[in-house]
Design brief:
2 copies of one chain form a homodimer. The two termini of chain A are about 20 Å apart. Chain A contains 11 helices and 2 strands. In chain A, about 70% of the residues lie in helices and about 0% in strands. Chain A is an all-alpha fold. Chain A has one domain (about 1-250): Orthogonal Bundle (Farnesyl Diphosphate Synthase), CATH 1.10.600. The interface of A and B includes residues 101, 105 and 125 of A.
Chain lengths: ~250, ~250
């Protein structure tokens, strides 16, 4: 697939080669980001650039940045002090493979690399980095709320823990292609709803939702429809974003 | 002091207010950054802007960014899986006060905030963020090398774990004030040597150095002299940078 090729190529370009010192860090960073996979967030980023009349190539660095940032969140979420997960995508988690200290540090390194990479965008770098910082902070806020003891605000968790990185992906892609403020606003709305739909679908796949299965099913459909309708009136080619939104609905793990 | 006031004011401006949800995160972030203290790195950043003919105000956001980034490294270094420290600056460390998961996440949030803040600089944002990303990655590389079992390269650790953030501070401050490439290069050299001098002095204060006390004393003096001589020919007022370099030599904890 065209977009997938761009994504794997730019990730390979910006990640440290395995020989870069200290080697354990470079290996852990590459292990964390992996190869292939769905790459949902970077696909949104590239497709958002096309949806505002730019090219996918305009958004290649922000796309790599959002995927790298997403993977740091997984590395830290899996830690013993957090979810204590030993396996992800059928392989040992980063801390299980490289040790706990190296996993904390590999996550930190991925975070630094994400911002350095976003700053390579061809235009609008101040707004792009501010957006990544804002939503990168948001995802942590969602995670802290999620692990809070006692009553937690599920909507707050879903918006921040899941949708914020979808928003950063779409907005950065649009900005990298020189979008108008109106187009950026439409894509922000699209990504918020697509992120929520993604989370509802995740709950359906897990067979566990705070809203119950039937209600979650209709929430997912509503959010997807709302996302797709936000694309009306965009100045570029929205084909990829529409396909992406439809493919996430009723997806398999 | 003039520079200190700018630093405390901008830190207060960009850190989340204590009521920002989730409150435990906002509290932990403010607790980690603290108030007062030496603020060596942001002072270098502001003084670098003056040294290239700009004003300290030009560099206020990069100065806040480097101090916030420095403090995330301390929060993560103190974790049980890393140095397992329970006290810092006479107070419980962040993980001891807020729990391990919240400390990992507060560090992550500070990192996101650092980049968002650097992107508020008045000019040269792409280069500023790339520099912060490069040295932010460097500090992690130094830390991984430092905790490696077996032979480690002390010079590599000192350059990356300590000097890299000094370099980011000086270079970002210069760029924020619109420095010429020649002035940026001089300040990079200044900061590398000042960072090394700072680390040697730290070893002297701890009474423990891989080079032995006498040798470390002379290394500190040489590095400080080299740093100060790098300031010759800069186009602005280097008074603050010279004072800063001299005050670090033979300093007390």
């Amino acid at each position: 697939m065209r977009l997938s090729q761009i994504i794997e190529k730019v990730l390979d370009e910006v990640l440290p080669s395995e020989g870069t010192r200290p080697e354990v860090l470079s290996k852990a960073m590459r292990y964390a980001v992996g190869t292939g996979g769905k790459r949902v967030r970077p696909r949104i980023c590239l497709a958002a650039a096309e949806a505002v009349g730019g090219t996918a190539e305009d958004a290649r660095y922000p796309a790599a940045a959002i995927e790298i940032l997403h993977n740091y969140t997984l590395v830290h979420d899996d830690l013993p002090a957090m979810d204590n997960d030993v396996e992800r995508r059928g392989k040992p988690t980063v801390w299980k493979e490289f040790g706990e200290a190296n996993a904390i540090l590999a996550g930190d390194a991925l975070l630094a690399l994400a911002y350095r990479t976003a700053a390579l965008a061809p235009r609008n770098v101040p707004q792009i980095v501010q957006e990544l910082g804002e939503q990168g902070l948001g995802v942590v806020r969602g995670q802290v709320e999620d692990i809070e003891q006692g009553d937690k605000d599920i909507e707050f968790v879903y918006i921040h823990k899941t949708a914020d990185l979808f928003i950063a992906a779409a907005v950065m892609g649009a900005l990298a292609a020189g979008a108008s403020p109106e187009d950026v606003a439409k894509l922000r709305e699209f990504a918020l709803n697509l992120g929520l739909a993604f989370q509802y679908e995740d709950d359906l796949l897990d067979g566990d939702s705070p809203y119950g299965m039937e209600k979650t099913q209709s929430l997912a459909q509503e959010a997807t429809a709302k996302a797709i309708s936000s694309l009306d009136g965009l100045s570029g080619d929205t084909t990829e974003l529409r396909l992406l939104a439809q493919s996430l609905l009723g997806r398999k793990k």
